[in-house]
Each structure stands twice: as structure tokens, then as C-alpha cells.
Amino acid sequence: MLTLLLLACTDEPQTADTHAWPEVTPGAPLVGAAEGYLELPVGTPLAGYSSRCGYLGGASKQDDRDSSYATAFSESTGVQTLPQIKSIWLENGDDHLVLVRFDVIYSYDELVAEVTRQLEEATGERLDGKVVITTNHSHASWANFSDQTHFYLGGDRYHEENFRRTAAQLAEVALEAYQNRVEAAVGASWTKDWDPNDEVYRDRRGENDELAVWDDVEPGYGKDPYLHVLRFDTLDGDPIAFTYTFGIHGTSLGDDNPMVSIDAPGHLDTVIQEQFDEHVVVMHMQGAGGDASPSGVDSDYARLESVGERAADKIVAAWESTPTSSADIRMETVSRHIPQLRDTMSVTRDYGELVYAPYDPDAEIDNEVWDGDQIITPIDEFNTQYGGAFCGAGDPDDPDVLIPGFDVGATVYPYSSCVDVEAIGAVLGAIFRLEDWEVTLPLPESLAAHTTASRIGPLTTLTHEGETVDRDLLAGFFPAEPLGMFAEQWRRRVAAETGYEQALLVGYAQDHEGYFLIPEDWLAGGYEPNINVWGPLQAEHVMEGVIEVVATVLSTDVHEDPDPLGWYPATEYFDRDLPTEQPDTTPDAGERLTAFPEYFWTPLDLTPSLDIPSEVPRVTGMVQLAWEGGDPAVDLPDVVLQREVDGSWVDATSHSGRRIDTAQPDILLGHTPDPLFPSEADQVHRWWAGWQAVSHVRDRAGLELGTYRLKVTGERYTGGSASWPWATESYEVLSDTFTVVPAELSVSLEGDQLTVALQAPEDGYRLIHLDGSSRGSNPVVGPVTVTWGSGASEEVEVTASGGVSVGTVSGGSGEDQLIVYDAYGNSGTVSF
To answer: Residue 465 in contact with residue 267, Cβ under 8 Å?
Structure first.
């Protein structure tokens, strides 16, 4: 068994002269929260699957369309859900922590810098190092706002316009959170083993199932079992916002999906926020999601909703149990770019320092990795000057180097499949049409990892053992996809070396470096080690850099400079110009289509229809609307469901008060250009919206009856602009009105056994019931009321079983008919 007994620091932390620095001063917590949505042009590629790159197969390519917003990846074609932006601004009069989470694949350090600059300009506050941008890691959300060259294979070539659009929208939501600040009560809680049956998330990494790391943990750590909640209330006890942190990948939708989606992690927020009777900002933050996959039931978009449904009660229960206090707190947040220089990387073990042998192109590699349960150091197998990729890929018994001739010289797994980054640079240049000056070695973004650490407290905290204590929260924000063992190592090392108990780890934040594994886990091989470029020592080397910040900066009583000697400079990126390809002017934008053209694309192979029925039954009913709109460069149509109330039209809202529109899973949006290509041609842009008559999240089969319509508001280009932002004017489209009526239930009676079901349509895409099917049979919500032909009635309790509801009736003798009503008034009839 590997025993990683980590020695606590015996010397006092070395800090800069402290007499010149201001003291850390406690103060009353102030909290503001806000939310919005990220709007980028349809056509922007989706991130997360390299197979979407045309060079690697072009998965999710729907037709021959192209887009000026895509270079080598397949174009997105519409929206299932708009990426959410959530922000919580915490301060105490002495320091700030600005949390921003948005639903994309990963963060980017230059984005953090630009949002910080905009917030400082707008507020006058000093915020350098205080802004955290983290993501939900959706593999179905917009990409190419990041200029990290080696991650072009994850989301296409960088696009300056999309970067600027993204930064402006994140800053806008964070600024709203700043303006919303009020005096608050804050508290924290931990829950362990909160999803024991893998209903929400599950371990996806089998390569380390036999790996033993700590004496008190069985081999095969599995998924990280912890759930952390940070709760923010008003002084009157009303909820403002809360964060909840655990790791779950955003991969419910596969690489063939072309629709923008917040995927499973985003649908956690979508469902959980609807458990409140008011607007509460609910923010999931990713933990150790690198080896955790989403679970759920059903298929396609309904599966995404099911993950939220399965998690909601558990997470709300954790929130309810979280204590709060308005007592003064101390705060300090600092950021550092941790150097990632191969020959100075090291990781501490009780048996010595793990380091790399100096790079030597003529070295004779011994291919000896282990000495018993210890890693042999120095490590000579990772013999690459600029880093290595794809380490651990392929068959361990017969590994292939993806680019022959550019291996790192080792023949022992997992080093045997490593490809020297020098070769990757040439491949990237060819795929993404890069100039020679755009591919430099070493890759600039690989030389430093942007990290942030924050100390807040003391906070009233409920521990996972059930004890309420006052303790500081120590949070580390990591620029990668942490695995479960990495999170466990972080908690253990922080406690041993700095004294902070139960340190919080947030991943997918600030920057991106691939997967973060401790060295022992990296050496187990598999998929995860092949993305980070600095081998087995990279991740824990960065962890040690963050722990040093905690020990030398956050653990003092002053606000010292986290980089007084200039040892941790930020990555410098190229200055880029805005693209100048102008949008189409689309003079007919706003005209409804009366007939479909020869080619028209809809998601999920839904059957396109322009017939809006006068009556739309719950669940089975569908309304579609198509129109000519604006170029996606300027138009992301806002389609909202409206309801007639007392002769006026009002936007339909959810239980918590949020609009039912294209940002939500209720309404799908699709785009078809004509001609499909090239994007430089004068194109007509046709848009489509589809809505299924299912209530938003709560009471799914009980949508409020009444008269409805769909209203579209869009933008068309008016010409004259040299680059973004483009000059536009608005247009509007209205659907015919329609009446939502109760659904028809299927009913059967055999003896005294009653069976009731609600059949979803063949084109259904919404979750109806966790025990049913979005395109099949579903149980109903009971109790049901049975009315016999004679007029007698009875209430029957029913249970879900195999996609239907079953119960036992007591009457029926001599009756020739019965009518069954579910809890919402949907009904079905059977005659004998």
C-alpha cells in the first residue's frame, strides 16, 4: 500500500516585511447576487469533444453550413438552454471576493484579467486577484473565447469578438451583484456520502480502482463524496443566494449534439432554484469533477432535467441544515500564477522530493517507475523539453504514439504513448490555419497556472460529522479538472501543513491546464493523464504552490503583496483584432413562414410543422413557429411563452418567477441559413422555435390551463458597422393563440387493479416523470379520483411502476364506465 505521510511544515512561514502592509480587519458581511445568460452567435462551435473538429471526424456536423465564428469545428445550430451566468459578491469592508460562474467548458486567465479590469473601472474598487471565474464544464456550450493554443483541440480557434462579448456579459452580471449588496448572514456546511446510490453522479475512472494511497482509505477512492454549501441570507433570514460544490462532468449530451446546452450541471441549478418561492441565486461550483460522470434517467434533454430532479431534495436539505451568522468575519483573497517550469517542478513525499531528471535528448531512459510503493526520483521517463500530451492513451499492453517519431523516448506505460508537444504545435498550426508566429514553444499558456485562494471566517459551520463549529473557510480555486484523489490530497495537505480543517476545492476556475491528478494516480494511466502537458508532477506541484500562498499570505494578520518579487507573472497573450466580416442585412426579418423551404433543420429530428392547433393538450401537445430573422451575428431571438390574463398578455413565469423563454429547457431554438454556405454569401436566415406543453420543472403534467402564444423579439443588421458591436434594429413575431387543455390519460381496469398512464408524444423532449419516458409512458401524479358511470366516486392512492401508475379500487360492481382524474385534472375514460 502506498502511504503518503505528508510532513507538516516545521519552520515558520517566510513572509515579506509586514510592517508596511495594512492589517486584516474583521467586518460585517455584505452580499449581493445576480444572474444572467451568455449570448453568443449561433454557429459558434461547442467545446469539450475534440471529435467535433473536422480533422478528427467532425462529430455533430448537421449539414454543409459554415459560420464566420467557426474555423475547424462543427457549427452549433441552435439552443436547448442558454448558458447561465451567476455572480455572488462578498465583502466585509476590508476585502472582496467576487464569484462568477458561467456554463462553459473551462475558464481562461485572460478573461479573468479583462473582467477584473472592467469591474475596477465601473466600481472604483481594487479587485486585482479578488475575482474568481469558474465554470460548470458543459461539453455542449459555446467555445473559442480562450486563446490557449493547445486547447484549440477542445473548442476551436480563438475568436476575438466572442472573447469581448463574453467578458462584457460576465462583468455586467457581476456589477449587478455589486449593486445588490446588503448586510447578510453567512454560513457553511459539509455533507459526506450524500449520493450513495449514484443517482446524481458516479465514478467514471476504473484505472485507479486498485490504487491505495492513504492507510485509512480502501483502494480505489471512487468519486469525491463531499458536498459543500455556502449560504447567504438577509439579516431577516430570507435567502439571497447559496453555492453548492461537488464534482460532476457535463457530458450527458454526446459529441453528436449540435445544440447549445448547459448540460447536466446546469440543469442542477435549473431545478434546484425552483424549490424556492422567490428568486434565489443558486450557484453550483464544480469540485472534483474530473472522474465523475452524471447519472440520471431517460434520454437526450429529458435526461439533463432528471439529474437536477434527483439532486434537488438532497441539496435543498443540505442548504436547510446550514447555519448562518451575521457576526463580523475576516476576509482575504489572493491570486498567483504558479510557474510550471519542467526542471523546477517538484512534489513532496515523506521519502523525498519527486522531480524530473534534466531534459537530455540523448539520455538513456531506465524505464523504471516504481521502487516498491515509492515513485523513483528523479523521473527520467518524461524526457521532453516542452511537455508531452496523450500520455496514457491507448492500450497499456500495446501503446501507440499518435504522431510517430515524436515520442519522449520511454517504453514503459503510461509514458510510452506520450507525444512531444513540439509535434503538437505543428499539427495545431495546420488544423487551425495559424501563422508561424502564433505557435511558439514552449506554449506560453503552459508556463503558469492561474490560481486563487480565499480565507473567510470564522463562519458558523456544520461539519459532516454533525457538529456545529466556528471555523475559517479556506477555499482553493484550481485551473483544471481535479480528480477525486486530488481533492482528498488537497484537504489532507492543507490540514497537515496549514491547520485549516476541511479545505474547499473548486475546479474549472481561473485558467485551464487539463486534468489534475496526484502523481500516483497519473501513473495509473488511462484517458485523464493524456491532456495535461507537464506529466505526473504538474498537478500536485500547483497544489503545493497554492498551499504556500495559504501558509505565507493568508495565514498572516496583514494584507501583504502575494508577489512582492515579481516571481509569478501572468501569461501574456497576443493582441488580436476584431473580425470585420459584416452580417447579412435580412430586410424580411420578422416575417412568419407559411411554408417550409426545401431544406429546413430542426433538433432531435423533430417533425417540422407550421400548424398551430387551437387546442394544445398538456404534455402531448406541441407548438412550432418559424420565421425569417436576423443574421446570428446580431440575432439570438428571444422567444417567450405568454399567457392571456384579464385581456392582457403577460410573460409566463416559473414557480420562482423566472421567465419561460429560450434560456430555459421549455423552448428550443434552431437556425437554418440559405444558402448553407459560404457564410460570406448573401444569406436568408430562418429561425424555428418549438415548445412542448409541459410545465417548467414543477407540476410537469399540470401546466396552467388557459390561452397562450409565443412572442419572438429579434434583431436585424442595419449596416454601416466596421466590426462588433454591429448596428441593429429590432423586429417582432407573434404566433397564433392557442388554448392549453387537460391531457388525456390511458386507463385500464382488470378486476380491482387500476392502471393509469400519461403517454408522451413521439417528438417529446421534456422530462415528464422520473419513472417514465419523455417519448413513452409515464406515471401520473396522484391520488387519482375515480368516477363511475353511476356517479359514485372514490379516491385511489397509486404508485409508480414501470412507466404507469397502479392502484386498487373498491367499487365498480355493476358499473359500465369509469373516468379517472389525476391530481391536475387530466382525465381518461374506459367503458366495459
So the answer is: no
Of the residues 741, 775, 790, the one at which a domain ends: 741
Give pLDDT, residue 429: 87
What's the pLDDT at 9?
34
Q: d(Cα 535, Cα 539) in Å, to the nearest integer?
A: 8
Instruction: Copy the grid coordinates of residue 653.
Output: 413565469
- The verdict on 613 and 546 lying in the same domain is no
For 189-217, write each residue's pLDDT tens digit: 999 999 999 999 999 999 999 999 999 99
Contacts of 9 (CB under 8 A, 6+ apart): 497, 498, 551
CATH number of the domain enclosing 721: 2.60.40.2300
Residue 416 counted as domain residue: no
235-to-30, 31, 460, 471 alpha-carbon distances in Å: 10, 11, 15, 20
User: pLDDT per residue over 134-171, tens digit each?
Assistant: 999 999 999 999 999 989 999 999 999 999 999 999 99
| Separation CA 421–CA 698 (nearest Å) | 50
Q: Do residues 32 and 123 touch, judged by C-beta distance below 8 A?
A: no
The answer on 293 and 147 residing in a single domain is yes
Whole-number pLDDT of residue 179: 98
C-alpha cell at 336: 498567483
Q: Which residue range forms the structural domain that includes residue 716?
A: 603-741
- The pLDDT score that the predictor gives to residue 401 is 78
Q: Which three cell numbers stand for residue 673?
A: 441559413
Residues 74 and 244: their CA atoms lie apart, in Å, by 33
Crossing angle between the packed helical segments 160-179 and 109-123, to the nearest 10 degrees: 40
Q: Is residue 168 part of a domain?
A: yes
Q: Which residues contact 66 (CB under 8 A, 6 or more apart)?
A: 75, 676, 677, 678, 679
Query: What count of other Cβ atoms lies within 10 Å of the Cβ of residue 275?
Result: 17
User: Among positive and negative, which fits the CA dihedral 204, 209, 211, 214?
Assistant: positive
Domain closes at, from 741, 772, 802:
741
Pick from 564, 488, 452: nearest CA to 216: 488
Amino acid sitting at position 221: Y
Domain shared by 709 and 803, yes or no? no
**DSSP labels for 657-685?**
S-B-BTTSTTEEEEEEEES-S-TTS--EE
In a domain, 467, yes or no: yes
Q: Are 705 and 776 within one domain?
A: no
**C-alpha 12: how far from chain center:** 40
Give the span between the Cα atoms of 317 and 217, in whole angstroms: 27
Report the C-alpha gap between 323 and 233 in whole angstroms: 10
Neighbours of 400 (CB within 10 A): 13
Nearest one of 104, 196, 210 to 156, comparing CA atoms? 104
Residue 398 Cα distances to 364, 406, 411, 485, 536, angstroms: 21, 17, 10, 27, 21
The answer to whether residue 358 sits within a structural domain is no
Length of the chain: 832
pLDDT for res 422: 87
Q: Are residues 769 and 697 in the same domain?
A: no
C-alpha closest to that of 97 among 120, 123, 121, 129: 129
Q: Which residues of the chain have pLDDT under 50?
A: 1-18
| 564, 566, 570, 575: CA torsion to nearest 10 | 120
Element (H, E) at 120: helix 109-123
Alpha-helical segments (H) within 403-559: 421-431, 484-498, 519-522, 538-549
The total domain count for the chain is 3
592 - beta bridge partners?
627
Concatenated DSSP letters for 310-332?
HHHHHHHHHHHT---B-S-BEEE
